[in-house]
C-alpha cells in the first residue's frame, strides 16, 4: 500500500518532461493555507497513479510526505479497506509523536485491534487518538490515497472519505489530503458535501497537452 512498496516495483512514475504543470499545481495548492483536500480525478488509464507516485517522491524529498495508501482492485489487502486504517495509524504514529502514544495505548489494550471491523479500527486507532490532540506545532504532512474507486464497494468509499475528512480536516493535526480516483458519482456526491471545507478539484485531462507535446517531440524526425 505504500508508495515505494517493493511489491509494486518498479513503480509507475511520470516521465520528467510530462505532467510538469499539473504537478506544480498540486504542490502549489497544497501550500495554500485554506486548502485542506485536493481531489485529482480523471478516467481510467489517464495516469493518476503515476502522478501520485511522482508526487509522493517529490514530497518525500521536500520532507512533507506523511501517509500513503495505494488501492489496487482485486488485491487481497489493497482491494478493500481492511488494512487501510491500521496502515494510516502506523504511519501517523511515525510522523506525529503527539498521537503515537495514544495509538500504542489502544493497541496495548486490544492487541487484535487490527483484525477487528473497519468501524472499530477507525474509531479506536484514529478517531479517539486524534481527539486527544488539541494543538500541534509540527510541520504539515501530506496524506495521499490513490485509486479510491478501486476499493470494493461504493458505500465503503464514501465512508473512507467521510472518515478522513473528519479525522484530518477537523482535528488539530497539520495534515492535508490528496485523493486520486475516477470521477464516480458516489465519490462526487461526498465531495459536493458542504462539510468538505477547503476542497479543491483538479482534472487530470488538463495535463494531456504536455504529454502530447512530449510524444510529438519524440516521434518527430531528428536531423541526421
Task: Describe this protein's structure.
- The radius of gyration is 18 Å and the shape is globular.
- It has helices spanning 20-31, 48-62, 84-95, 97-109, 118-131, 154-169, 185-191, 208-219; strands at residues 37-41, 65-70, 141-146, 175-181, 199-203.
- The chain has a 5-stranded parallel β-sheet, with helices on both faces.
- Helix 3 (84-95) crosses helix 4, helix 5 runs parallel beside helix 6 (154-169) and helix 6 runs parallel beside helix 7.
- Strand 3, helix 6 (154-169) and strand 4 (175-181) form a beta-alpha-beta unit.
- The model has no long low-confidence stretch (mean pLDDT 84).
- The chain has 8 helices and 5 strands, in the order αβαβαααβαβαβα.
- With 224 residues, the chain is α/β, with parallel strands linked by helices.
- It comes from Roridomyces roridus.
- Residues 36-183 form the NACHT domain.
User: What is the quaternary state of this protein?
Assistant: single chain
Net shape: globular
Distance between the termini: 47 Å
Structural class by SSE content = alpha/beta
